[in-house]
Amino acid sequence: MAMGSESESESPHDCLRGRCLGVLRRMEVYSKFRYYFQHPWSRLIVAYLVTFCNFLVFAEDPVSHSQTEAHMIVVGNCFSFVVNKYPGGAWNVLKVLMWIIAVITGLIAGKFVFHRRLFGRVLRLKMFREDHGSWMTMFFSTILSLFIFSHIYNLLLLMSGQMGPHMVTEYMGIRNESLMKIAAVGTWMGDFVTAWMVTDMMLQDTHYPFWGRTARHYWRQGHNRIVLFWAVLISLTSVVVLVISTDWIRWDNLNRGFLPSDEVSRAFLASFILVFDLLIVMQDWEFPHFMGDLDMNLPGLSTTQLKFKLPVCKRVFKEEYHIHITGKWFNYGIIFLVLILDLNMWKNQIFYKPYEYGQYVGPGEKIYTVEDPETLSDFNRSTLTWEWRSANIDPRTNRTYIQADMFLHSRYVGSSLDVKCLAFIPSLAAFVLCGFFIWLFGRFQGGETFPENQDKSYERIKRSDLGATPEEAETFKRSGTPMLLLVDTHHFGSSDNSMSPCSSETQETQPSVAHEDTDDVKKLTP
Question: How, if at all, do strands 366-369 and 305-309 pair?
Fold first, then answer.
């Protein structure tokens, strides 16, 4: 009986001990997962892999060789609205005036409606605190505004009558081949610049103190990082632009049909490129709030931030306005632009039909591209087939039509739309997971207030030593302006909820220097 009562008395303690051990095991698993997920090698592999995949999908995509007119939803309307299809006369003045108003409207709506109201006060996202991310938000809101105003302009053309050729549509007035070359250069600039920026960050920071010691030591000496960053970026970009624009190297002559792709495999490849783009952002050490990076120089520069003073008339505007570019938006802002091109690439694979791009399918399900402009001007489904073009002779050249067409190793097997849409599942899962983490960990909680830079008289201090220069300190003393000191909570091991780096309650303090010992807290171990 005594032993039974003793075991009963110990059971609650054993239960509590078991729960604690279970929590510790889960924390240990989470720590190890985060250690390897955000390890420099993992980040570098993902960053450079997406660059390679973008080249691969561009080379395998049959749309890259199409000579028909390019079309792109939303972006094509904006391009056509601003660049071409001007009717002439007073309509030109009206069109220019409307897209200027659209740009101004988009900038204002992006700043005050989407950034400040939606992302700030409603969603309370930390990454959009104060003015962070405002330019990116205004860019996308401007695209939306141009798209809406283009339809208003079309309505005016319809009311006037006989203006059909000047209607703004998604057709851009350039060939698909030209658009895809521009997109390839754009994705190269976006993905490789991002990968090179990630490399720069890995070699600057000390979260993983035992990784790449020799490389880090060399990278930090003198101006090595600045010279190497720009030398590699400019030289490789020049070579890539030359190869893409001149067709100096043709992919089909190199691979010779080795593992040819079809529309399903290309759709999955484009989908995984979107996943990798999001992984680059999610692997950041400060995702999803991006409320740190106090001691990290901007890639290729010797400063932690860029600041431009706008030349405005002080008689009209009583305050001085600055363009402020900092850390994460400088590093990852370009990825959001690349996402537009990658989404268009994915759309091309999902809805691809050879006939719509001036192409047809031959033996072995291989794709042929028509390059003759006269054929493309009046082709139809009966003449744009392998059977017809291989059996009929062009009277101008006395050769069969197929001999003038471009042969591609890429294939078209005619898969159904349901099968091709399965390729969007990985991208959809990545978008949902990214949004979930932002919603869960990247928002100010109920007890925290969203900072909005209402007071223009103070300036945020972002120095590697968390302090200020003697000249700045003297300036603040003369003006009597309080100094706002941002404290990185990760240095002190506190949670985001306990101390917000951008709390609305500012502290008046003298310039201070952070202890070097705080860097040791940031170092990660498995």
Answer: unpaired
Of 76-90, 287-301, 306-320, 470-484, where does mean pLDDT reach its minimum? 470-484
Q: What is the mean pLDDT of residues 250-274?
A: 83
Amino acid at 345: M
Tokens of 430: 């990545």
Instruction: For the chain, give every domain's residue range.
Output: 51-59+175-351+416-443, 74-169, 356-415, 448-526
DSSP element (H, E) containing 74 = none
- Asked if 188 contacts 172 with a C-beta cutoff of 8 angstroms, the reply is no
For 410, the token pair is 């890429």
73 Rama sector, left if φ>0, alpha if ψ -120 to 50, beta otherwise: beta
Among 436, 406, 274, residue whose Cα is nearest residue 339: 274
For the stretch 395-447, pLDDT in tens is: 888 888 888 888 888 899 988 888 988 988 999 999 999 889 888 888 887 66
Q: How far apart (Å, rounded) are the C-alpha atoms in residues 282 and 502?
A: 21
pLDDT in tens, 117-169: 998 888 888 888 887 888 889 999 999 999 999 999 999 999 888 888 889 99
Q: What are phi and psi of 237, to 5 degrees?
A: -65, -40
What's at 365, amino acid-wise?
E
Burial 362-395 (b: 16+ CB within 10 A, else e): beeebbbbbebeebbeebeeeebbeeebeeeebe
